[in-house]
Amino acid sequence: MLKFAPMLVLGIESSCDETGIALYDSEAGLLSHTLHSQVAMHAEYGGVVPELASRDHIRRVVPLLREAIAQAGRKLEDIDAVAYTRGPGLAGALLVGCAFAEALALALDKPTIPVHHLEGHLLSPLLSRDPPTFPFVALLVSGGHTQLMRVTGVGKYELLGETLDDAAGEAFDKSAKMLGLPYPGGALLSKLAELGQPGVYELPRPMQHSGDLNFSFSGLKTAVLTLVRDHGDLGSDEFKANAARAFQEAIVEVLVKKSLKALKQTGLKQLVVAGGVGANKQLRSTLDLEAKRKRFRVYYPELEFCTDNGAMIALAGALRLQTGTPSKPAGSFAVQPRWPLMDISG
Ligand code: KG4
Ligand code: ZN
Known about the structure:
Layout: E1 8-13, E2 18-25, E3 29-37, H1 39-43, H2 50-72, E4 81-87, H3 91-108, E5 112-116, H4 117-123, E6 136-141, E7 146-153, E8 156-162, H5 168-178, H6 186-195, H7 218-231, H8 237-266, E9 270-274, H9 281-294, E10 297-299, H10 311-322
Parallel strand pairs: 1-4, 4-5, 6-9, 9-10
Antiparallel strand pairs: 1-2, 2-3, 6-7, 7-8
Helix pairs in contact: 2-3, 4-10, 5-6, 5-7, 5-8, 6-8, 7-8, 8-9
The structure holds 5'-O-[(R)-(carboxyoxy)(hydroxy)phosphoryl]adenosine and zinc ion.
């Protein structure tokens, strides 16, 4: 077994509308994490306004760092490396985290580790008390991505299937908007769905029988639009709850079926669900039921680590260092707003 010198890694996340900071100790685990969500600020505009996002990251990053350091009971000088989200995400928002991380590391004379945001999500279940072991199948369902992957180790990712159009979270958010819910509607739609009756409306299950592990959600979104146009009474709580339920039933069924197919195809017995949609209760309960029936194990990140956060970036940075990815000297900075995960798979 390889032995590594203990390391304290600072993680900084700023790819979209959450500023997240965390301190991860390679021996003691997560020491602290602080987060500011900009959701309330963007809600007024019905979506993320990139320029406002960047400016808010600038305002938040120093106070959040101070808080994280204080919570951990450590000093800035104790940090061994600074990990930050290099991409994918909003260019301006990424630049704030990157410039801050590089400048801080330069001042502390410590190296940096640029991290892929999706790798952070993928590895986030390893932060939990009962973590999965490699290899596993990962269902990554966030606002920007929907992918099934075979994960055989840190940095060893094989794409099994992905969405051909909208991401699952995007479909949740757009459908929520059509039902008159405020941005970002995913979580609100799922709350509303709990009040709805299943089976009142039937929506399509796109690509369910496509034979591969790809997804498509734009047709489902259009079906919600048609449902609202044909039957819709957005003044009726009952209609909205039943429509939300129909949408959720459809999307959860497709996500679960394809995940089962991926497990079968790979012969693996562990499924990891990561990304914001992984917080969805119906998705979790359906997968838990299938796991009992089909004898596999399903792992989720703690709820607070499903959506964007600094802890997953600090963890990914620490694991990258431990598995031999070299850190780089601080001071040079570049972000990668578009960055396929497969580019970092070795
Ligand atoms: O992973 P994440 O925080 O950001 C990205 O990297 O994209 O995911 C955010 C997405 C949003 O689309 C949000 O509506 C969705 O996750 N989401 C949910 C729930 N909570 C968050 N979707 C369905 N059910 C939820 N409970
Ligand atoms: Zn994310």
